[in-house]
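During the no-cost extension, the postdoctoral fellow (Dr. R.K.) reprocessed legacy sequence entries with the updated structure-token encoder. One reprocessed record is reproduced below for audit purposes.
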Amino acid sequence: MDGRDDDVQVSLRPVALADLDLFRTWWADSEADRLDSGVVREGPRGEFLDRIGRLLLAGGLPSWRVIDVAGVGPVGYILHRGLDPWTGSVELAIRLGREHWDRGYGTAATRLFTDYLFEEIGAERAWLEVVETNGRARRMYRKAGFIEAARCPGDRDRPAIVVMEAERRE
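Re-encoded structure tokens follow.
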């Protein structure tokens, strides 16, 4: 998958075993954890990386893509969590390495991946959750065509969440 957005040339490719060190780096960022889910995960993610490695050896991660930027290389990943056959909806998630924030890469990748979900997977609606205080991500998702659809209040253990969605256009 290739796309161009505001002079940013982004492509999405399947995850390979050689990408696991990149994933380790992207997941080691506690600030990204806080902005992503509101929770900073402690400790190594070795077990998860081992599981991903086994899945890659067994046939890949068809719902995951590495985000490559022309002239830069891999900057993050984007994934979907399955198409609900009853509603036609699919959840997506994205993470960029911090050094690649605020450059338009996330917007371009989200647009490209959403088009893929609608055109190739057959989704009617894509949705995601974002921490309410993550204004940077919420602006990026709006630029990529998502609207705020719902809010989930936070509590002592979890921050408030905004659900954003984009619908297939004919």
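The mean pLDDT is 86. The domain at 2-167 is CATH 3.40.630.30 (Aminopeptidase). The remaining legacy entries will be reprocessed before the final report is submitted.
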